[in-house]
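Researcher: Please translate sequence to structure tokens.
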Amino acid sequence: MNSSESLSQKHRNQIRPIFEMLKHKKSELDIIDWGHLVSATKRSIMNSPQQYLSDFPDGRISDSVIHHLFEEFLNELT
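Model: Translation complete:
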């Protein structure tokens, strides 16, 4: 596992509770509101990664990893 994969796995584990909350909310909200919630959550994590993640690298790498994790999450739900 290279450092990028290791970082991605670590971040995935740290934001797993957020993904679980989003999965739960999907059944409670209509698809547009749920999409807005997912986008807002992703934006919050990208804007303030220190509130959600430990050991985050420079912003560009964190944004890339977070974007990838959200893509994986959304793909798993379809």
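Researcher: Any highlights?
Model: The chain has a mean pLDDT of 88.
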